[in-house]
Write a structure and sequence with these properties.
459 residues; mainly beta; Porin; 16-stranded antiparallel barrel; two-stranded antiparallel sheet; 5 helices; 46% strand; disordered N terminus
Length: 459
């Protein structure tokens, strides 16, 4: 079935290239002479990853199998946008996905495949992942070009503006972006390099939810705020998935509207050092849901009964902060970093088990070796847990991705390097390698070497 999906997406690509005069994909990234009234895009990403056997003293419920494994994922998106009235756009994204991450996305918190969901599937599943309206209110003054892309219509807009996004989308569409480490379909593949893993960002189990985000943009800075629905149960589906996901899943539910939500705010400051652009972003979040307490779970654990996070469920808060930096060093060379912290007292709800994270890396375009559309990247990750969170896993507790039944705690450390190369027009391939020590924070397991390859097309 995966072969059918890939062949179908390639066929659609070549048909559209012919219908549009086989224009180079980069031509679509130009500002329109007049405002674009509608657009459509397609993307397909296929990733295969595997690892050989590794050393392990024991295995538990969420442990990465130590005998080695290979898995594949496929995603296909059809996206369209239409201009409604002055300053307003509506966008829809229909996504199909199929396959599994290694161990069905368990056993490593800095998980190596950002295209792998906890809802792995043998047969294709589909969802309307985005369905939103964006209203831009110009405040006058200088304007800038807006380029055509998958979620934006080309045209012009005031640099000083207010933007309101309402509907179903990903909080990551708006917050915690980074030019060099943001999209596992084209850049680094690891979860910790596509987002700040200490931010338990509001989402269903495939990364999307319903909410509203408001942005105030000025020439050198932007202030953002968003509030989103969260699922009733940890790492599960939200209520709108009953309508927008197929096959039907009756377990999809939101938490009570006034008691379960995720809020996030971000301040972005743009600057230049000797004409080399840079951005620094400061993020703060506050979530509320029917979470368990790590301390209560530890206090009630016994030698015969592992720590149970669900037994102490009550409406609680979880909060944290993040710092996000990107900086061009010379033309075609950029560095980046994220640092994150959460309070680490209550149950991880939507993204990962990480309480503390630090990442840093470099991205180099292939202009230096006459391959301007190629990219080489190298980055490092450190993920950690709060003290009580460590005790929870030591007492046999399980989280979103971690939980080996025991724990010899250590920081989870990851190195990732990739080379992404242009094959033809909008088709790219990539090779990826990740080296993971103390997977799921356990020094009794690993290290693990994960090898990967990616095929990606978009237009």
């Amino acid at each position: 079935m995966k072969i059918v999906v890939v062949v179908a997406s390639f066929a659609l690509y070549f048909w559209s290239a012919s219908a549009l005069g086989a224009a180079d994909s980069t031509d679509t990234n130009l500002p329109a002479a007049s405002p674009q009234n509608w657009n459509w895009h397609i993307q397909n990403t296929d990733i295969v990853q595997g690892y050989p056997g590794f050393s392990s003293k024991y295995s538990g419920p969420n442990s990465l199998p130590n005998g080695g494994e290979t898995r594949e994922t496929v995603s296909l998106d059809l996206m369209a946008g239409v201009r409604l009235w002055q300053g307003a756009e509506a966008h829809i994204d229909g996504m199909m996905w199929q396959g599994y991450g290694v161990n069905n996305a368990l056993g490593v918190d800095g998980f190596p495949n950002g295209e792998a969901f906890r809802l792995g599937t043998t047969d294709p599943n589909g969802a309307i992942t985005r369905l939103f309206i964006r209203q831009t209110i110009g405040l006058g003054g200088e304007q800038e070009d807006v380029l055509d892309d998958q979620l934006t219509l080309a045209g012009k807009q005031d640099i000083s503006r207010i933007t309101i996004t309402l509907g179903r989308f990903s909080a990551k569409d708006i917050f915690d972006n980074n030019a060099y480490a943001n999209d596992p379909r084209t850049q680094f593949m690891n979860w910790a390099l596509m987002a700040n893993e200490a931010w338990d960002y509001p989402a269903d189990a495939i990364g999307y939810t319903t909410g509203i985000a408001v942005e105030l943009n000025q020439p050198n800075w932007t202030l953002r705020y968003g509030i989103f629905q969260v699922p009733r149960y940890s790492n599960s589906l939200t209520a709108e998935d009953r309508i927008f996901k197929w096959p039907y899943d009756g377990s999809a539910q939101d938490g009570p509207l006034l008691d379960a939500w995720g809020m996030v705010t971000e301040f972005e400051r743009r600057y230049a050092i000797k004409d080399h652009p840079g951005v620094i972003r400061f993020l703060a979040y506050l979530n509320r849901a029917n979470m368990g307490s790590y301390q209560d779970a530890v206090d009630n654990a016994t030698t015969t009964s592992p720590a149970d996070i669900t037994a102490s469920a009550a409406f609680r808060y979880k909060y944290g902060f993040g710092l996000n930096l990107e900086q061009e060093i010379v033309k075609n060379v950029g560095v980046f970093s994220r640092v994150g912290w959460s309070d680490g007292q209550n149950q991880a709800w939507m993204f990962s088990d990480v309480d503390y994270t630090a990442t840093a890396g470099i991205s180099i375009k292939g202009e230096f070796w006459h391959r301007p559309d190629d990219t080489f990247g190298l980055a490092g990750v450190m993920n950690g847990l709060s003290k009580v969170h460590q005790e929870f896993f030591e007492a046999g507790g399980t989280g979103i991705l971690a939980g080996d039944g025991n724990l010899n705690y250590g920081w989870e450390k990851i190195m990732e390097t990739y080379y992404d190369f242009k094959i033809w027009k909008g088709i790219h391939g990539a090779f990826d390698y990740q080296f993971i020590t103390a997977p799921a924070f356990n020094q009794d397991r690993g290290p693990v070497s994960v090898f990967g390859a990616r095929l990606h097309l978009e237009f």
